Amino acid sequence: MHRHVMKSVPLAAAFAVAVLLPTAAFAQDSGVPRTAWGAPDLQGVWDFRTLTPFERPAELENKDVYTAEEVAEFEARRNAEIAGRDDRVPADIVGNYNQFWFDAGATAVETNRTSLVVDPPNGRLPPLTDAARQRLQARRQARAGVTRHEPTPGGWVEDLGSGMFAVRCILGFNSGPPMTPAGYNQNVQVFQTEDHVVLLNEMVHSSRIVPLDGRGHVDAGIRQWMGDSRGYWDGDTLVVETVNFLRETSFRNGLSDANLRLTERFTRVSPTTLMYEVTVDDPTAWIQPWTYQIPMQRSDQPLYEYACHEGNYGLYNILAGAREREAAEAAAR
Predict the structure, then answer these.
(1) Is the pLDDT of residue 72 over 70?
(2) What is the tens place of the pLDDT at every residue in 277-299?
(3) Which of 76, 146, 181, 267 could form a disulfide with 275 if both were Cys (CB 3.0 to 4.6 A apart)?
């Protein structure tokens, strides 16, 4: 697994020197902080971990929002489940982190929704296309019997499945784009100037520099792992549109592909909450676009460097373990 180095000096400090500008006090009209040039102030570290599931559980089919009593019961039940899982998992395990390192948070989203997915209205993802189902089935068959971070027998780079992005430190499993709650390091820091916004994710220290000056997307022939992002203001909402992905990413375990088009919307709904809304449109993966929301919470903690290095001990040990198992299986035949 990756080694995470917590430095004494936040990585964010380097960005702050370059782009962080003074901000004005709270705007008198809306109560939402604004920058010195009048735009909503989205700057700061925002935490997107939550107990709320991505999709609505089947037993809550017709219920999109919990009551206050129901959300309290849900949080108590989930926290008890997590605590119980911690008690059952040994302190030292092979092939993964122990439970100490995982952080699902302790609360549901402040909107009390029963799922992050808000469209379709049933809180569930739309069906995959026939082509996407076939790709998924072929991947499962090719990787039957191997774990997420192991190579397919006889393979390496293209045969790690969607886990290759994390193992090779190319993309984080929750940092996107788009961002999704998962595992740990679920923070993003936002920096603003009049012409750009920077989205710096804690996971795999990835950053997107998003122009706001009206320039078009780069040529479709120039594709990138995180796509090509362009932003604009829609009233008090920052809209970021991203296209030109290189291929599938870690998002939804690699179900999306190069045709993915994202529309992310950032709205500061209160001094402590940044609403993050994402519409996912990939016609070769899902039969229709769909949308999810995360009310991100402002953190008073700095963002530290997530040091992920391809070629670290994790890769060596993954391969060594795979070779050991292959030798044992051969000897048993």
Answers:
(1) yes
(2) 999 999 999 999 999 999 999 99
(3) 267
Residue corresponding to tokens 């739309």: 126
Amino acid, single-letter form, for residue 124: R
Q: CA-to-CA distance for 58 and 26, rounded, in angstroms?
A: 42
Contact 48, 296 (CB under 8 A): yes
Closest to 239 (Cα-Cα) out of 224, 227, 229: 229
SS3 for 15?
helix
Per-residue confidence band for 70, with pLDDT thresholds at 50, 70 and 90? very high
8 A C-beta contact, residue 64 and residue 121 = yes
DSSP letter, residue 169:
T
- The overall average pLDDT reported for the chain is 85
- The full length of the chain comes to 333
Cα–Cα distance measured from residue 259 to residue 249, given in angstroms and rounded to the nearest whole number: 11
In 3D space, the residue among 264, 269, 265, 271 whose CA is nearest the CA of residue 300 turns out to be: 271
What residues contact 297, with CB distance under 8 A and at least 6 apart? 46, 47, 48, 110, 272, 273
Task: Assess whether pLDDT exceeds 90 at residue 205.
Answer: no
**Which residue has tokens 């044992």?**
328
Percent of the chain whose pLDDT exceeds 70: 82
The four Cα atoms 90, 91, 96, 99 give a dihedral, to 10 degrees, of 90
Contact 117, 292 (CB under 8 A): yes
85-132 pLDDT tens trace: 655 555 555 556 667 778 889 999 999 999 999 999 999 999 999 999
276, two tokens: 């993050």
Q: Is the pTM of this model over 0.70?
A: yes
> Which runs of consecutive H residues, i.e. helices, occur in the chain?
12-19, 68-88, 130-142, 164-167, 313-332
Q: Which residues contact 320 (CB under 8 A, 6 or more apart)?
A: none
